[in-house]
TrEMBL record:
InterPro entries: P-loop_NTPase (IPR027417). The lineage of its organism: unclassified sequences, metagenomes, ecological metagenomes. Gene3D superfamilies: P-loop containing nucleotide triphosphate hydrolases (3.40.50.300). This is Uncharacterized protein.
Length: 223
């Protein structure tokens, strides 16, 4: 992910979004491929608001043990199930302090709903949050990767209607604000498909099929 870029991964709950972002974080701190994409070795700040810290640590260590990778001080893990409210002065000050102190290249936020005090439909909260993120991107050159949920699918006579990035919960502003959108689509038990919308890339990215390897606590690319 280039410097000062914005991306969002969204999909239904409990289908592997956090696992994919765990793999991203580990890949970046080691500078190895992430699901076939090249990464540069950089420091990562991972703000986890979704999974209890102990469960999160167990999952990360399981993945590292199977892959032979190690957790290093290049990955800063912040776990707080209360979240951090980036639409408030206090939350913004706390976040900026973390960035100044630890100097990450990539900041991962999981999930978006715990980054704001209002709902993801609240225009004032969403705009305050994204304006602040634009500020830290500009001042500190960080990249931002957000985990978000999808709305309940619309169903028509022929089945569920896939609206692409409009399937994201909340304001469409988020889809307009980011540079890259990754949609996670469940296709079978422990199997998902990723679809990409990239506004800055020259080439279109083809959908990617992934299968969950439970013994590794990670996804693998499959045909």
């Amino acid at each position: 992910m280039p410097t000062a870029m914005k991306a969002i991964l969204f999909g239904p709950p409990k289908k592997g979004k956090s696992i994919i972002l765990n793999q991203l974080a580990i890949s970046v701190i080691h500078g190895i491929d992430w699901l076939g994409f090249k990464t540069n070795q950089k420091r990562v700040l991972y703000m986890n608001f979704e999974v209890g810290h102990r469960s999160w640590q167990i999952r990360l260590r399981k993945y590292c043990k199977v892959t032979g990778l190690i957790l290093t001080d290049q990955l800063l893990l912040v776990s707080d199930l209360m979240g951090i409210r980036l639409d408030t002065p206090a939350g913004q000050a706390e976040m900026e302090k973390l960035i100044v102190l630890h100097k990450p290249h990539l900041c991962i936020f999981d999930p978006f709903k715990k980054m704001i005090t209002g709902s993801s439909n609240n225009e004032e909260s969403v705009l305050a949050c994204t304006d602040f993120l634009d500020k830290i991107i500009f001042l500190y050159g960080v990249s931002v990767f957000i985990c978000h949920h999808s709305r309940k699918s619309k169903v028509i006579q022929s089945g569920a209607l896939d609206l692409g990035s409009q399937e994201m919960t909340g304001m469409y502003h988020l889809a307009q604000w980011v540079d890259t959108i990754i949609q996670l689509i469940p296709v079978a038990n422990d199997k998902i498909k990723l679809e990409f919308e990239c506004r800055t890339g020259e080439d279109m990215l083809k959908p990617m099929n992934l299968a969950l390897n439970r013994s590794m606590a990670g996804f693998e690319v499959v045909p």
